[in-house]
Design a protein that fits this description.
This protein is mainly α and 242 residues long. It has 10 helices and no strands. The protein is globular.
Length: 242
């Protein structure tokens, strides 16, 4: 499953305090951030099987069939266990698109192409939000907490503003690092195995690490992590914005 699929799944799970939603919880759980054992398995197993089968056989079709097969199996298991299908459907659609792209092009590396495009899109949006002075992680955290967006301009909330900017830069770093490592592997020849390994390592595991740093930055009270200089106004408790 690509970075886009795993990230999209986590965005869909915000309401359940998983994925990015975990950064506004009172306590941070790595397992919640990656969707638990089931979410982690469903995220990484298709890519792992794709790489193993392609490395063993050299056949794109066989590797595609393995990835699609494990996704289909995970859906069947959910149906049998009467578990909500919606988080898995987004990932299944992503695998189907990736598989179709690789199969039609005959190039196994294209199984990972959609993830590169979506990482580039996320990177662009996050950078644009910083340039527009609406750092997206800060906006999302405020919305998830039911707060308004006065932190952007209120001088008394300068500390919070700095932390939200820093958190947004963390995610810029995540998507930028993925592209910096994986794009050269995608463009190189015969690097499908290395690309798959990089995709798995930099997928849910790096996502969880960045989510944990984001939780550290965004948790309240604001005095737990200080970015830059404290003003006198910031030494006082920040007003409730709900």
């Amino acid at each position: 499953m690509s970075d886009q699929q795993s990230d999209d799944r986590r965005l869909e799970e915000l309401a359940e305090k998983k994925g990015l939603g975990a950064v506004v919880a009172d306590d941070f759980s790595v397992w919640q951030a990656v969707g638990g054992v089931r979410g982690l398995t469903e995220t990484v197993l298709p890519s792992i099987l794709f790489v193993i089968v392609f490395t063993a056989t050299g056949e794109t079709v066989a590797a595609v069939a393995a990835a699609v097969g494990v996704v289909a199996l995970s859906l069947v298991v959910r149906i049998i266990q009467r578990i909500d299908l919606s988080p898995a459907l987004g990932g299944a659609l992503g695998v189907a698109i990736s598989a179709l792209w690789a199969w039609r092009s005959g190039d196994a590396a294209n199984y990972f192409a959609i993830g590169l495009w979506t990482n580039g899109a996320y990177l662009t949006v996050l950078l644009a939000s910083i340039l527009a002075r609406w750092p997206l992680i800060g906006v999302a955290v405020a919305l998830l907490r039911g707060e308004n967006q006065s932190w952007r301009t209120d001088p008394a909330q300068q500390t919070r503003r700095r932390r939200y900017y820093a958190a947004t830069w963390l995610w810029v770093g995540l998507f930028g690092a993925r592209l910096a490592v994986q794009l050269p592997l995608y463009l190189a020849e015969d690097q499908v195995g290395a690309l798959g390994v990089a995709r798995v390592i930099m997928g849910p595991f790096l996502f969880a690490l960045v989510a944990w740093f984001t939780w550290m930055l965004c948790r309240e009270p604001s005095t737990q992590i200080v970015i830059g200089h404290h003003s006198d106004a910031e030494d006082s408790p920040e007003p409730e914005e709900r």
